[in-house]
Automatic annotation (TrEMBL):
Belongs to the class II aldolase/RraA-like family. This is 4-hydroxy-4-methyl-2-oxoglutarate aldolase. Substrate binds at residues 58-61, 80. One of its GO terms (biological process) is regulation of RNA metabolic process. CDD domains: RraA_family. InterPro entries: RraA, RraA/RraA-like, RraA/RraA-like_sf. Keywords: Lyase, Magnesium, Metal-binding. Its cofactor is Mg(2+); a divalent metal cation. It comes from the Bacteria. The keyword Electron transport does not apply.
Amino acid sequence: MIALPWRDLGGRMAFSGTVSTVRAFEDNSRVREAVAEPGHGRVLLVAGGGSLRRAMLGDLLAAKAVENGWEGIVIDGVIRDSGVIAGLALGVKALGVCPRKTEKLGDGRRDVVVEIGGVAIAPGQWLCADADGVVVMDRQPGAALQP
């Protein structure tokens, strides 16, 4: 469980999927790259260092995530354009909102192990989110064990 004060900001409160990660601080260049690719029902987990100063997601990137089949986005940071994002068929959890855009410097890394709320999360793990919080596990519940 990632025990942070999550706010439900998307149009879908409950969502789950295979994790893809971004680690970036106040620069959403890697988030932009990720949502531009087919999501295939994945969840994008953004380790934003808990920054409340710059929004890592706005309405245009959220709409692109919906268009490309992402299930949800969880951000250890803030978003902007929350009114529009609340109307999209996308699960979004973040620490809050801020109208200020990020820098676009190309900083950050994708699909690396990240730590959020003291929990290490690796790409390929399974994330479940609902009104009660966010849980990450090694595999999808009910998935068969590999011999």
